[in-house]
Each structure stands twice: as structure tokens, then as C-alpha cells.
Specification:
812 residues; 7-stranded antiparallel sheet; DNA-binding
Length: 812
DNA sequence: ACCTACCGGGG
DNA sequence: GTGTACGGTAGGT
């Protein structure tokens, strides 16, 4: 009997001789790939019978048959459980095989004696991880014997298996890959028709390109006789490299499905799974690709679902994402040349090989960069990396709750059906409170904000789907909301509030540790815990959630509005001037008060706050500007700029960050804000704008600065209204360039009469100064700064040198 | 304004 | 495989 420890990486199950066996692929402490088999886990689901109904015998009698497999309930156990945090009697029905669960549930569902059937849709391996309390990627103890099994790694049949510690797997072997395919850019991608031309692989001390045509190149290219050989070789290389992680960029939806389609055409078996299974492509609108035993990391999916919030970019192309995260772009090639170059066997293919390998390298680096975040999510949520990679935040919360409530004997509610979801969506939430600013230039601003406002409200007011409107506490702990009556139990702790309190305290501990020493993994963990806590409010109000709770979500918002009002009202009472407030923050002006008064104010507020709630003194700003909305007098929400005491200017919500503005307009807006805040008046900003206008008129602004970039969203012919960017795209097409949906169009508006679209030219078509200065002044520069200047009483005419000098405003 | 259909990423 | 997305928005009505 061998005893050892290993880190689980990937799980699957198989039914052998009518019995389900869990296969846990992982790595031992000395770095060996192995598979641990566990046949001790039984599938089950819950039936909640109507009061007094005795249906045990009736349940054990049912059976079903499908695909020559018979399904039945092996035994039924009565259990004292909870449902929505209330005690109930439940029947736990064990079945012979996992597939029996959904099949049998359909039979039982509409029995009169049954209240509900639950937990029939929790996949077997996920159930296993939850019930066995095993956390993937962390150290697990195993006792067992080596058994013969048709696998690429040694198999051990477990006698016992149990979680040992939080120690996390290190030094995983990662292999990134990328394919290039034949086909006309802009046309539908057709894997059944067009061949794979080359495949690049990239790992630590490993890079290779495989292809089936010979061309001149500096890279390590292996040339094979045919496409089928390339696919075969890809498989061999993966087998030889033995990666723990195989990474691609949108490989769920493109690379793997493409490879599989091509392999099928040549009747090749893509059995790269460690159990000799083929790549499994999930059907449905959104594809997935799973490789047994190897963690398939689709970098794109992870970014789009779990990382997007921390990124500025709103397009998730490999190019944009690499630039932001790694500071590195893709190699700029003309993709429309790939297929012609292939047909001609031109040496241009050398550049495409380089491009191919570079993409694989970027994917590899992104993978290294994001793995700490993925792994921390795996450890917090407790599901395997493959699953976590494909989940969004509401699912993280749901699977986290499922794991946490296991020990509380809480039966999970079922996911809502379509109609139920629609009904939930119809109930709108009231929203957060915004105190609209009066446009102006202000000095001595203090910003307060509630630390984790929504999570701390949930924890402090015991908000949970099972504590709402309890029979024991009516009238106490009542939410400040108009539309509904909602109060929350003051006697028994709800699971949502205790889970969230746990997340908050765990994060505080990590923060303390981080103060001692900075650490990538700890930072990732802190971020994960924060994201999880912040997602709870959204989860409770999410129509597809198992633990959806409208009263909870509405109450959280009600309390949030009340707590922010409290700060606003008391600040006014204390003689501060309230400038602006949004959701969880309040901006005030000191007037005749001091910073110390503001600090004392925060302390006073905190004395009255319940539980873990806390108002923070976020910072002091010597100056700030709030501008008006397009429409009228009131100040725009989420659009302001502040300058701190180190002269750093922080701009929020202005167009400076928007893509479809010319650089000159963005530069000018930023410079105007900065000058006004730094110099505490508008004089220098006015001079600056006048100078830019003069430069524009005299053609001194470089072409790049007057270029406007817009992304094409569909084919050129599909546009009914030919806007300037469409006109530019037409010019590009007429020059033989291929443009289609997603193409970035860069254009300049040039001098001349008539419509804008007739004056559009491409940047390389024009000479210095050959742009329409009036257009740029009227449609780019002025709109960007007009509302900023109106705050300080500067009229548009004055900037353009027409009007008379008005009285300039300054700080108040 | 509201509703529905389609798109994203990849070549 | 004890499940199948989802959130945004363009375009039509």
C-alpha cells in the first residue's frame, strides 16, 4: 500500500461495469504526472416530500432505460436538512450511475406526494469535489495501490483520499499554441473546406512551428509532407512535451474545434487526452474544448469573464489585451496576404511563421500572467481549473455558496426555468443614489467613501435569502425601502451574511500580510476575495441565480442609499459643503473647516455604524472640477477631475479615454483640465487652446494627431448611412485592402466643400497640413473643452478669438 | 421607446 | 456528461 501526496489538476469520471469511477489527474510532490482512481463515491439527488407522505418504497421501485443502460435508485435515506434556511425532512436518493439522476428526476418531478426534486443538475465531478471537500491545485493525501489502467500516466486506485493542506502546486509545464488557416479574410471561416497552414507551439525553452510547405525563414520550422502530417505531429509534440496546461487564445471556439474538424476529415484520432480520449468539443452556441487530464486554459475566455473589469480595453483581441497586460503588440502583418502567399509558396510565409510563433508566445506570457488569478479563484471557489476558466462571476458565487452550505445541510434551490427568469427580470431594482454636482471649479475637496459598502451592509444587517421576513423579528432590522416590506432576522445568522463576513475577514488578514511583504499570489488572493464579496449583491439580484432574492437586493440598495444620505446630511449639519455623491462616496468642500475636522467627522460617523461597516477618509484634493451635462444646468454624473497635493491630476469619465476621438482633441482636453486645476484659473488654458487653434489653422499639427480611429462593425455594403469611417473604409477597399467587420479604420478629414464623408482621406494619402482645420476646431477641439470652460465662464467665441474678454472664473 | 437577433474571439 | 452562456447593442418596429 503506497502513501503519497499530490495536487489534483483535472477530473473526470467513467462508468466501468455499472459503477462510476472518479479519475483525478494531477502531479505528485516530486513532479510526476499521475491519476488517482476513486470508486467510492455514489451519485445522488434530493426529494423533498409533502408533509406526511411516505414515498420511500415508491422511489426505490422506479427505473428507467436509455441507450441500453438501466437507471435506478439504489437506496433512499431520510435526512434532516434545511431549505432556504428552514428545517425540513428530505430524502436522499442514491442512484446506480450519474446519468440516472436526470433521467429519474423527470419521473418523480410531478408526483402529487412530492414538494420538489433538488440538486439533480450538479455534475458528478463537481459534486465529488464539494462532498469530499477536496480543493484542486492544493495538496491531497492518498493511500492506495498501483493498478493497470489504459492511461498515459500511472494509475493508483485510492483506498483513502483526503485534503491535506493549502500548499499550492508550483512549476506547472505550460504549452501555448496557435494555428494559422487558409481562407479569405472577411469571409466566413470554413474549417470543413480550408486547411490548417501552420501550427506554432511555445513553452519554456521550447518553440516550434510545424507546416507543410517549404519557405525561407529564420524560425525553427519543421516541414512535413501534408496537412494531415502536421496534425499528427501536433499530437506527437503535445504527447512528448507532457504539458500540465495547454493554452490558447479563443482555443475553445477556434483552434481546437478547427483542428478536430480537420483531423476528422483525414480520419485521424486526436487522442491527446491522458486516457487516450479525443478532444471533446462542447456543442451549443458557444463551443468548449476539453482535454482529459490536461488543463485547457482558454486565455480569452478567462479575460472576458473574470478579468475584464480590471482592463481599460473594451475589445478583447489578442493584440489589445497583450498590449495592455504585457505592453507588447502582435506583429503587424496583412492577413489578407497569407492565403495568396501560400498559393504562391512565397517567402512572405517566413513573416507569417514569425507572426504565428509570436502569437503563441503572447498567449504563453498572458497565461503565466493570469494563472495566479485563475488559481486563486480555483482555491476560493473549489472547482477545477477547467471549469473556473469558463465561469463568470455569478457562477463563482453560486459554486462558492454550494460548497459553503454543504456543512450547513442546506439543500440548493433549483435554477429557475425560462419563464421564472423572465418574471424575475421584470422586477426592476431602484438603483443607487447620486447627488448631482453643481458644475464648477472647487478647492479643498475631501472625498469619503464606504469601504466595501454592499458587502458590509449584507454582513451587518444579516441579509440572506433565509433571514428575510422571519416570523420572530417583525419590525426589527427593517430595510429602508418603500415598495416592499423587508426585515431580516436578528436571532439566527443567515448563510449569505456569514459567508460574506468570512470573506471580509479573510481579506483583512491577507491585507495585513501584504503590509509585511508584497507577494503576487497574496495580491491575487486579496483581489479574488474582494471580487467575490462584491459579486454577492449582484448575485442576489441576478435572475438566473439559484439563491435569487429580490427583497435582499432591494434592501441592500435601500440601506446603501440611507447610509450615504446619512453622510451627506451630517456633513451639511457640520458646516461642510457637499459637492457630489455617487453610490458609496461623498465629495465635500472644506470651506472654513480643516482637514482635521473632516477626519473627526469620519470618526463620528463610524461610531454609529453597525457591524463591519466603515466610512473611509479617502483623500484630500486641493482642487477639482465638475462639468455640466450636455442638456442643462445640472452636473454630469461620473464626470469630474481632481488634483491631489502632489500635483497629480486624476480624470474620471471624460472623453480623453475614448478611442473614436482624434489625438489632438484628447490631448487638448487633458491639457486644459490639467492647466485649469494646476494654475487655479483658466488663463493659461485659454492661451493654450488659442495656440492649438492657430497651429491647426496654419497646418502645423502632424497627421497622426488629426487621425481619427473607429472600428468597423459590419461589412461596408451593409451600412445604410455612410459615415466618415465607412467612406474611409471604401477608400481602403478601392485600394485593394481587405476591410471587414472588426477592421480598424483610421482617417483624416481634409479641406474642401461638401459633406464630411466626401472629404475623408487615409493618413498616408495626405501631406502635412492637408486637413480641414475648421472641422477639427468645430467638431473635435471645441466640443471637448466647451463644457470645461463654461465652468469658468469662458465662451467658445473667446477661444476662437472672436468674442470679447469675459470675466474669468476661478476656484470657489 | 421597446423588443429581438446577433455578436464576440479566431483566420 | 447530474448544465449550456451572457451581456451588450445594432437594427427593426
Amino acid at each position: 500500500m503506497a502513501k503519497f501526496q499530490f495536487y489534483p489538476l483535472d477530473l473526470t469520471y467513467k462508468v466501468v461495469n455499472g459503477k462510476p469511477i472518479i479519475y483525478i489527474f494531477g502531479k505528485t510532490t516530486d513532479g510526476q504526472q499521475i491519476c488517482v482512481l476513486d470508486d467510492s463515491f455514489e451519485p445522488y439527488f434530493y426529494v423533498i416530500p409533502k408533509a406526511g407522505a411516505d414515498i420511500k418504497d415508491k422511489l426505490t421501485a422506479i427505473s428507467a432505460e436509455k441507450d441500453n443502460e438501466s437507471y435506478h435508485i439504489t437506496r433512499v435515506e431520510s435526512e434532516k436538512m434545511k431549505f432556504k434556511e428552514k428545517e425540513i425532512d428530505a430524502l436522499r436518493c442514491f442512484t446506480n450511475v450519474p446519468r440516472a439522476v436526470p433521467a429519474l428526476k423527470d419521473i418523480i418531478y410531478d408526483w402529487d406526494s412530492v414538494e420538489s426534486v433538488n440538486e439533480y443538475d450538479i455534475r458528478f465531478v463537481r459534486r465529488y469535489l464539494i462532498d469530499k471537500n477536496i480543493t484542486p491545485l492544493t495538496l491531497v493525501n492518498v493511500e492506495g495501490d498501483i493498478v493497470p489502467e489504459k492511461l498515459k500516466v500511472p494509475a493508483i486506485k485510492a483506498k483513502s483520499i483526503e485534503q491535506f493542506s493549502e500548499d499550492t502546486v508550483k512549476n506547472l509545464k505550460i504549452l501555448a499554441f496557435d494555428i494559422e488557416t487558409y481562407g479569405e479574410v472577411g469571409r466566413r471561416i470554413a474549417p470543413e473546406k480550408n486547411p490548417i497552414l501552420m501550427i506554432a507551439l511555445y513553452g519554456e525553452n521550447f518553440k516550434k512551428i510545424i507546416t507543410w510547405k517549404k519557405f525561407k525563414t529564420e524560425e525553427d520550422v519543421e516541414v512535413l509532407p501534408s496537412e494531415a502530417d502536421v496534425i499528427q505531429r501536433f499530437q506527437e509534440l503535445v504527447d512528448e512535451y507532457k504539458p500540465d496546461v495547454i493554452a490558447g487564445y479563443f482555443s475553445d471556439g477556434f483552434d481546437f474545434p478547427y483542428i478536430r474538424t480537420r483531423a476528422k476529415k483525414y480520419k485521424l484520432k486526436m487522442d491527446i487526452g491522458l486516457d487516450y480520449s479525443e478532444i471533446r468539443i462542447g456543442r451549443g452556441a458557444q463551443k468548449t474544448a476539453q482535454v482529459t487530464g490536461i488543463m485547457h486554459f482558454d486565455v480569452f475566455k478567462f479575460i472576458k469573464r473574470a478579468v475584464y473589469k480590471t482592463l481599460k480595453t473594451d475589445v478583447y483581441t489578442l493584440d489589445a489585451v497583450s498590449e495592455e497586460i504585457l505592453g507588447e503588440k502582435k506583429i503587424d502583418v496583412d492577413m489578407s496576404r497569407l492565403s495568396p502567399a501560400w498559393d504562391e509558396t512565397s517567402d512572405e510565409l517566413g513573416l507569417f511563421a514569425k507572426y504565428n510563433l509570436h502569437d503563441a508566445r503572447l498567449t504563453y506570457k498572458l497565461c503565466l500572467n493570469l494563472i495566479p488569478n485563475l488559481f486563486e479563484l480555483v482555491k476560493v471557489v473549489g472547482q477545477m481549473p477547467y471549469s473556473i476558466n469558463r465561469m463568470s462571476f455569478s457562477q463563482f458565487v453560486e459554486w462558492y455558496i454550494l460548497r459553503q452550505v454543504k456543512s450547513l445541510k442546506e439543500i440548493a434551490p433549483n435554477r429557475p426555468g425560462y419563464n421564472n427568469q423572465m418574471a424575475r427580470q421584470a422586477k426592476r431594482l431602484k438603483g443607487a443614489f447620486v447627488f448631482e454636482p453643481t458644475p464648477g471649479l472647487y478647492k479643498d475637496i475631501i472625498v469619503f467613501d464606504y469601504k466595501s459598502l454592499y458587502p458590509t451592509i449584507i454582513a451587518s444587517h444579516n441579509i440572506s435569502p433565509g433571514t428575510v421576513n422571519c416570523s420572530c423579528c417583525e419590525g426589527k432590522n427593517k430595510a429602508p425601502v418603500d415598495m416592499i416590506d423587508a426585515w431580516f432576522c436578528t436571532k439566527k445568522r443567515g448563510f449569505a451574511s456569514s459567508i460574506i463576513e468570512d470573506l471580509i475577514t479573510r481579506r483583512s488578514r491577507i491585507k495585513e500580510m501584504l503590509k509585511e511583504k508584497d507577494d503576487v499570489l497574496l495580491n491575487a488572493r486579496s483581489q479574488t476575495l474582494k471580487d467575490m464579496a462584491n459579486s454577492f449583491y449582484g448575485y442576489l439580484g441576478f435572475s438566473a441565480a439559484r439563491w435569487y432574492c429580490y427583497e435582499c437586493a432591494e434592501s441592500i440598495l435601500g440601506w446603501a442609499r440611507q447610509y450615504i444620505h446619512k453622510v451627506i446630511d451630517q456633513a451639511k449639519e457640520q458646516g461642510f459643503d457637499v459637492l457630489y455623491s455617487d453610490t458609496d462616496s461623498v465629495f465635500i468642500r472644506l470651506k472654513d473647516k480643516t482637514k482635521e475636522d473632516a477626519v473627526k467627522f469620519v470618526e463620528k460617523i463610524n461610531m454609529d455604524l453597525p457591524g463591519v461597516m466603515e466610512l473611509e477618509y479617502q483623500g484630500f484634493y486641493p482642487g477639482g472640477i465638475f462639468v455640466s451635462t450636455k442638456a442643462g444646468e445640472s452636473g454630469a454624473k461620473k464626470k469630474y477631475a481632481l488634483i491631489d497635493d502632489k500635483n497629480n491630476v486624476k480624470i474620471t469619465g471624460f472623453e480623453t479615454v475614448r478611442r473614436n476621438w482624434s489625438f489632438i482633441a484628447k490631448d487638448v482636453q487633458k491639457e486644459v483640465i490639467t492647466r485649469i486645476l494646476k494654475e487655479q484659473n483658466a488663463d493659461s488654458a485659454v492661451d493654450y487652446v488659442k495656440k492649438v487653434i492657430a497651429d491647426l489653422k496654419e497646418g502645423r499639427i502632424p497627421v497622426e494627431k488629426v487621425s481619427i480611429r473607429t472600428q468597423l462593425s459590419k461589412d461596408i455594403d451593409e451600412y445604410d448611412n455612410v459615415g466618415p469611417h465607412v467612406a474611409a473604409a471604401q477608400r481602403m477597399k478601392s485600394k485593394g485592402l481587405v476591410v471587414g467587420p472588426g477592421s480598424m479604420i483610421t482617417y483624416v478629414v481634409t479641406k474642401g466643400k461638401g459633406r464630411i464623408r466626401d472629404k475623408v482621406k487615409l493618413p498616408d494619402e495626405i501631406k502635412q497640413g492637408d486637413y480641414d482645420a475648421e472641422y477639427y476646431i468645430d467638431n473635435q477641439i471645441i466640443p471637448g473643452v466647451e463644457r470645461i470652460f463654461s465652468v469658468v465662464n469662458v465662451k467658445k467665441e473667446e477661444l476662437m478669438g472672436k468674442g470679447s474678454q469675459s470675466k474669468l472664473g476661478s476656484f470657489i
